[in-house]
Amino acid sequence: MLTKTGRRATSLAIAAATLTGALTAAGGTAGADQVTNFPAKVDLNGRLNIGEPADAPGHIENQYLQGTQVPVVCQQFAGADLWDKTADNTWVPDKYLTTGTDGRAPGVPDCNPAPPSAGEEPRDDFNHQTYGFAKDQCTAFAAFRIADRLGIGDFANDWRGQHFGDAGTWDDAARGAGLVVDTQPVVGGIAVNDVHKVGHVAYINKVYDDGSFDVEEYNWNTPLGYGTRSHVNISDAQADFQYVIHFK
């Protein structure tokens, strides 16, 4: 029986071999504009948006048949599920491709790479959709960031069968949806305050070496409007946050 170390080494070897063959078929090394081919395990419908079900509106029926090569240009998580974007501008679940690994395939880029350490510039580009939450509340703005910035296009109040509801219950709903919820701020994380009235959520756009972070938010200092705060913290204070939800 293989030890854990042996199993991991075997896994990595298979992944490397698979990728080598895929790159040969693709005609080069993987990169931002490079196609890497992986065989489909089953007949696959192409989706127009990441995270969509197989029969979502606009899907392409049996776009990739079992055993045929799927041209992957990049990979991205939608919640806990890894998805592959194809050269045909559609999305397929990674679990249905033979990539030699259960996680990201070596050398295949992230479709939405992590922002630089300097963080993201704050900007009020909110589309004012509700996503099933109250209009122009912190929850609706956070949902917009999740759908638009993090690429989880189907996120809404009932995502993955969970009722996210008021901001103060988002951490519990996120755990129920299988997401990581902890106290480690990251750019792209959703900060949760569950001690202030009905709670509050905000989008983390910058993290500092001392562990403090900047947020973009709605309906905090500006009623039903956009605002930013700098150097907030994880603490029990009413004006701080207690948890971070990791959608990626």
UniProtKB/TrEMBL annotation:
Chain segments carrying region Disordered: 98-122
Signal sequence interval, chain numbering: 1-25
Entry coiled-coil feature ranges: none
Key words of the record: Signal
Membrane found in the keyword field: no
UniProt keyword Cell division, yes or no: no
Cited Pfam families: CHAP
Domain spans labelled Peptidase C51: 113-245
Domain of life from the UniProt record: Bacteria
Protein name from the UniProt record: CHAP domain-containing protein
UniProt source species: Flexivirga aerilata
Classification of source organism: Bacteria, Bacillati, Actinomycetota, Actinomycetes, Micrococcales
